[in-house]
Design a protein that fits this description.
The complex is a heterotrimer of chains A (304), B (521) and C (214). By secondary structure, chain A is mainly alpha-helical. Chain A is built from 11 helices and no strands. The two termini of chain A are 35 Å apart. In chain B, a hairpin with a 6-residue loop joins strand 1 and strand 2. Chain B is globular, with a radius of gyration of 22 Å. With 521 residues, chain B is mostly helical. In chain B, 75% of the residues lie in helices and 2% in strands. With 214 residues, chain C is mostly helical. In chain C, helix 2 runs antiparallel to helix 3. Chain C is globular. In chain C, 52% of the residues are buried. Classes of the chains: A mainly alpha (304), B mainly alpha (521), C mainly alpha (214). Chains in contact: A-C, B-C. The interface between B and C is large, with 56 and 44 residues.
Chain lengths: 304, 521, 214
């Protein structure tokens, strides 16, 4: 039971990307790649060899491995569809946020290790934007934590998310909406999606996430991609966990949550298809707007 | 009926003035309305009618005093305006400071707004409902904004914009004060009982919630204080007063500021009745001293005639607020001072208008040798200087001295010393400017110069004579009204003490004593 | 938390922050129109007595003025003044939003310390009114363009209106109408002034209104 969320995440994470790409293709009037394309890509990459530049050190090689393991550990903390997570302890939401940060730190370190100007630029942007996104994540979680448990903010993710119920929506609907919207923005920013970063761009100057991993190849790149897919899954699952009320029927809950994940992926695809990438200056406004929403949610929560 | 007529006559006349074609008739209408208004006001001194319109409109001593100031000044300005408008008839004018061409506002708009301005000021003085008072004060802002923009050029536009925006924001805060006061009058069971009518509030003052009353007082003080030109909220005032046409400046300074003062007084009255004088009085004194200080600093290094007069208004508003803050005889002094200041300041602004018409310049160093070019105005200018700085034998001396005595009697020595030092500084600063303008050689650039006409001199001469008379003798009705206001601003305990030792009376009898203040200078 | 008046009040806060972060004058005017219309509905929701013709009249007049007439006046002077479309903040948008958040937080804190004599329809009334007033003041001092200062004035007025309708006892109808009339004329006069400013200076940055000083 406790491993259901982890297994689902490991198995289905790349599928999320497939759904997003399919949605974007539909919006553009194309048939699009198969849903399982991400899996094919991974298996192809894993069969290839890796090339390492002479100027890089062990940091470059460690980057993908550490970042994937960070995300993997984070995946053990997150419940899904009313299934408790593999590991749960009070305060694990902070650990969750910082495990994601560890992964990012090593990705950035590996990118800087190559000494390329473009990768340095991408790194600085990534760090800047995620620093702006982090307050929203923490404040949003704090708001939800207070609201569901009614006590200290330092409780475990499993408790917080399992408390989401229809009753909560009636009482504190506004807060949930605020937090969900803010976390959706964070999800877009953290996963290098459209209004913040363009995952399909071919111009290094405008890239954020993609430019950092340009020098990785073969199995390393597969690890990087898999880690990114997992991260997308985790942030999406967080939103779904907050928004979807539980019915205490395990099968129903999991099914509803899975379809909510699919819906979220379609939503991301739709956002990507209809919005242009924001100017760098506007991105910080977007993220600060999200942080503002969560702060507001926290204030309202405190009043309620 | 008279009360309604006082408001409706100028309103209707204002509407009519917008529609009138003939210049002649419009000017006649202006003078006629001013005369009717003054006559109606005078009749109030003989017989005070009862409240009308649900007690929203009523006349008490405080309102009557300020209404008389408004009415008298309006009459003087209206007469002066006739002379002024004659000079301004040309379609195009040259700005003699920067040399560009500009046109004036249509005369119909000017006269119409002037009359509406009178109507709104009358409403302020007569309304006993605080909400209606607010409507009136905001009305004065809106009616006077077009008057400031009479000369259509960029400087007056700037002054108008600052005036509308800053005053509207300030007055919006006073509206908040109204609402907060309304919360303060809510009874514990959540029912609202006391309407915001002045005497009902005073009767039920003991039931008002003190903490919310304090908040309301702060909002009112900041809100109406902005309109009254108390430092540091005075920033719009020098601009508006210096760019407006002179008869309008006279009204703004002499009448409008007092209307805002009235708003503050009404709330202060409430605080006193509710036993919160210990909260409101120090705040009034603080704002007053601050205004005096700011005025002193800016008058010392002023280069513009009308701006100097404007800062002098800030000074005198400070003096009045200090007087009220001190309480007792200080209130008496403040009331007397509001009369004296209005008369003197209006006379000065009107004289400044004559000077401006002749020299075409407002910079102090470009105006000199008035005693040869404009002999009558030079005399008025010097007399006005003596009157405004509170030198005997003018009325302002008497009232400022009463306030000083109230400070000394109340053992508020710090206030008294600051008050004296600032007044002395202002005396020096103004002497420097006024004397240099009146004396000195003939100006190098002689303007095309409109000579002083009897019509343009009439009003300032009369106004100054009035304040001179007030310095020598305070008529009994005026004294009674001021004393009435004083007793309405006293807590019961204080009123008893005052009855045992009538301070104000002793001050009046001391008025012939040579003051040490002029020696200090 | 989900009653209609709560939703309106939260919407008001969101619009305050939106106004602080928006650069386009047109969207600012639209936002303040939505805010005004939403606030205009409040008198209907807060009354304990339920429906009354007096309240309905007040609500209809305020919705009409705040939601339609004011924006229309602003749009009209915007067109006649031919202004640029940016609001020209003195402090940047991000800083403005952050300042707005701080002010909002402060208002909630202040409101939690004030003791109301009556139980308001929603416990959000007091903090939202305070934060709207503060945000309005911030908008006025932090914008260079004349029209966006007028928008700030309207926000300030909205904040006071929230406080008035929800907490103060009902002013007599005549006074209430007088207040609305005054605000209406104020906006009208400001609009006319904006037109004159644009004609005199070819734009409406109040930065250029800086000749008068000591």
């Amino acid at each position: 039971m406790r491993f259901v969320p982890l297994i689902l995440a490991l198995a289905l994470a790349p599928l999320l990307r497939g759904i997003i790409n399919r949605t974007k293709a539909r919006f553009a009037g194309r048939a699009g790649p198969p849903l399982l394309q991400a899996y094919y890509d991974l298996s192809k990459l894993l069969r290839k060899g890796a090339v390492y530049s002479h100027t890089t050190t062990w940091v470059f090689r460690a980057g993908p491995i550490v970042s994937l393991s960070g995300v993997l550990v984070a995946a053990t903390l997150l419940p899904f569809g009313n299934c408790p997570s593999a590991v749960a302890f009070p305060g694990d939401l902070v650990v969750f946020v910082y495990l994601l940060a560890v992964g990012r730190f090593f990705t950035v370190a590996a990118a800087l290790d190559t000494g390329s100007a473009f990768e340095g630029m991408g790194s600085s942007r990534e760090v800047f934007f995620s620093a702006l996104a982090e307050p929203s994540l923490l404040l949003g979680m704090a708001a939800v934590a207070r609201e569901s448990i009614g006590g200290s903010a330092f409780t475990s993710l499993s408790e917080i998310l399992s408390a989401a119920s229809g009753h909560l929506w009636v009482n504190l609907g506004l807060i949930l909406v605020f937090v969900a919207v803010a976390l959706f923005v964070v999800c877009l920013a953290e996963n290098a999606r459209m209004p913040v970063d363009d995952p399909t761009t071919h111009l290094e100057l405008t890239m954020i996430h993609e430019v950092m991993v340009l020098d990785h190849g073969g199995p390393d790149f597969a690890l990087v991609n898999y880690a990114a897919a997992l991260k997308l899954w985790l942030t999406a699952a967080l939103i779904v966990g907050i928004v979807v009320p539980s019915t205490h029927l395990l099968v129903v809950d999991v099914a509803v949550s899975l379809s909510a994940m699919a819906f979220l992926a379609v939503l991301i695809g739709a956002v990507e298809s209809t919005m242009a990438r924001l100017r760098m200056v506007r991105v910080q406004q977007l993220l600060i707007g999200a942080a503002t929403l969560t702060f507001l949610a926290l204030i309202l929560e405190y009043r309620a | 009926m008279i009360l309604l007529a006082l408001i409706l006559v100028p309103t209707l006349a204002g509407g009519l003035a917008f529609a009138m074609r003939a210049k002649m008739w419009r000017r006649t209408l202006l003078i006629a309305t001013a005369l009717v208004h003054a006559a109606l006001t005078a009749s109030l001194w003989i017989d005070r009618p009862g409240p009308v319109l649900n007690q929203w409109l009523a006349v008490d001593s405080l309102g009557l005093l300020f209404l008389s100031i408004v009415s008298g000044l309006f009459l003087a300005s209206a007469v002066y305006s006739i002379a002024y408008l004659r000079e301004e008839e040309a379609a195009r004018h040259i700005d003699r400071e920067e040399g560009f061409l500009f046109s004036n506002e249509p005369e119909a708009v000017f006269v119409g707004c002037l009359l509406l301005f009178l109507a709104s000021m009358t409403m302020v003085t007569l309304s006993h409902h605080l909400g209606l008072l607010w409507v009136g004060i905001e009305g004065t802002t809106l009616a006077s904004a077009p008057l400031i923009y009479f000369h259509r050029h960029h400087r007056s536009l700037e002054a108008t914009w600052k005036y509308i925006l800053i005053c509207s924001v300030g007055i919006a805060l006073a509206l908040m004060g109204n609402f907060v006061l309304s919360v303060a009058t809510t009874s514990p069971d959540g029912r609202h009982e006391i309407p915001l009518i002045v005497h009902r509030l005073l009767e039920n003052a003991g039931r008002i919630r003190v903490d919310w009353l304090r908040a309301a007082f702060l909002f009112f003080l900041v809100g109406y204080g902005t309109k009254m030109g108390l430092a540091p909220l005075h920033t719009w005032l020098p601009d508006a007063h210096s760019e407006a046409p002179s008869p309008v400046s006279a009204l703004l300074s002499g009448a409008l500021l007092n209307c805002a003062f009235l708003g503050i007084l009404r709330v202060h009255q409430l605080c006193v009745a509710a036993g919160e004088a210990a909260f409101s009085s120090p705040l009034l004194i603080l704002f007053g001293v601050l205004s005096l200080t700011v005025a002193a600093v800016f008058i010392m290094r002023q280069t513009d005639i009308k701006r100097m007069l404007a800062y002098s208004s800030v000074e005198h508003m400070g003096v009045q607020v200090i007087g009220v803050g001190l309480g007792g005889a200080g209130v008496f002094g403040a009331m007397l001072h509001s009369v004296n200041h209005s008369l003197t300041k209006a006379a000065l602004f009107l004289t400044a208008g004559n000077i401006l018409a002749y020299f075409g310049r407002k910079r102090v160093d470009e105006v000199s040798g008035m005693n040869r070019a404009l002999p009558t105005s030079a005399v008025l200018w010097i007399a006005g200087f003596l009157a405004i700085t509170g030198s005997p034998p003018f009325g302002a001396f008497l009232s400022e001295f009463t306030i000083l005595k109230a400070a000394l009697d109340g053992e508020r020595f710090v206030v008294a010393v600051l008050y004296l030092v600032m007044l002395a500084l202002i005396f020096v600063g103004m002497a420097n400017i006024f004397l240099r303008m009146a004396q000195g050689g003939r100006p190098k650039t002689k303007g095309p110069g409109a000579r002083e006409t009897p019509l343009a001199l009439l009003s300032p001469v009369l106004l100054l004579s009035c304040t001179l008379v007030l310095g020598l003798y305070v008529p009994r009705p005026l004294e009674n009204v001021c004393r009435d206001v004083q007793s309405s601003l006293e807590t019961p305990a204080r009123a008893r003490a005052a009855a045992e030792k009538p301070e104000a009376r002793t001050v009046l009898s001391h008025s012939t004593v040579r003051p040490n203040r002029t020696l200090k200078k | 938390m989900t009653s209609p008046s709560d939703i309106i009040l939260v919407l008001v806060i969101l619009i305050n922050l939106l106004l602080l972060g928006t650069g386009r004058l047109r969207s600012c005017i639209r936002a303040v129109a939505v805010q005004g219309a939403a606030i205009g509905l409040l008198p209907l929701l807060v009354s304990s007595a339920g429906f009354s013709p007096r309240l309905t009249l007040v609500a209809v007049v305020s919705v009409a003025l705040k939601g339609f007439v004011f924006p229309w006046l602003l749009f009209r002077s915007m067109r006649s003044a031919n202004v640029r479309h940016e609001v020209d903040p003195v402090i940047g948008y991000t800083a403005s939003i952050l300042a707005g958040v701080v002010l909002t937080g402060a208002s909630f804190w202040m409101a939690s310390r004030l003791q109301l004599p009556i139980v308001p329809v929603s416990d959000l009334v007091l903090p939202v009114a305070l934060s709207t007033i503060l945000c309005g003041l911030l908008l006025i001092v932090s914008r260079r363009q004349a029209l966006s200062q007028v928008v700030g004035y309207l926000v300030l007025e909205n904040g006071i209106y929230i406080f008035g309708t929800a907490l103060a006892h009902e002013e007599p109808l005549l006074v209430e109408m007088g207040i609305l009339l005054d605000v209406f004329v104020a906006v009208l006069v400001m609009g006319v002034a904006v037109f004159h400013i644009s004609r005199e200076f070819d734009h409406i940055d109040v930065d250029h209104l800086a000749r008068l000083k000591d």
